[in-house]
Amino acid sequence: MKRQHSIALTALLYSGAALAHPGHAEGALAGLLHPLTGLDHVLAMLAVGLWGAQLGGRAQWLLPAGFVACLAAGGALGMAGYSVPLVEAGIVTSVLLLGMLIGFAVRLPVGAALAVVGVFALFHGFAHGSEMPAHDNGWLYAAGFVAASAMLHIAGLWLGRSASAHGRWLRGSGAAISLAGVWLAIAG
Question: Number of folded domains in the chain?
Answer without folding.
Answer: 1
